[in-house]
Design a protein that fits this description.
This protein is an alpha+beta fold. It is about 25% helix and about 30% strand.
Length: about 160
């Protein structure tokens, strides 16, 4: 626990207090850093780039409190991955976690996580309200899968009896 106290000591007092109270859960996962990701918006594919990190976690804490008030809580843990302490966040209805390094505030996800759909929306939403500086760049038209429409050709009645 001395390593944890040293890692938390670099944080501002406000961050130190609420992060110290989080449940510690060890994580054994390989991570990849998220610098940018893609999301569909109005029929276009948009690249969302993380330009800058916030100075502290105060906006993240306010957003977590707000989510709790509207009854859509975010699951938050304190974890350690490869000797680095991180916040481990997940929306209540999603399976994948977002990892935020305490010292640098860089964002990571598990190596095998695909960032798309609801998870991409949650990640963008979380980053925006946590104070990260994001830039948006149109990357082209979005190709979405639409199943072919089929018609029923005939109706057969099979009598069992």
């Amino acid at each position: 626990m001395k390593k944890l106290e040293r890692a938390l000591a670099v944080l501002p007092i406000f961050d130190y207090e609420w992060i110290r109270k989080l449940t510690f859960v060890p994580s054994h996962v390989e991570l990849k850093e998220v610098r940018s990701f893609y999301q569909h918006s109005k029929g276009r594919l948009v690249q969302i780039i993380i330009k800058d990190t916030p100075a502290n976690f105060s906006k993240l804490k306010d957003w977590l409190d707000y989510r709790q008030q509207i009854n859509k809580p975010v699951v938050v843990y304190l974890t350690k991955v490869e000797d680095v302490f991180m916040l481990k966040l997940r929306a209540e209805d999603l399976e994948d976690y977002i990892y935020i390094e305490l010292a640098t505030k860089k964002v990571y996800v598990a190596k095998d996580t695909v960032i798309r759909g609801q998870f991409a929306s949650f990640l963008r939403y979380m980053l925006y309200y946590a104070g990260y500086s994001l830039s948006y760049k149109t990357a082209g038209k979005a190709k979405s899968f639409k199943p072919a429409k089929t018609k029923q050709a005939t109706l057969e009645v099979i009598a069992h009896g």
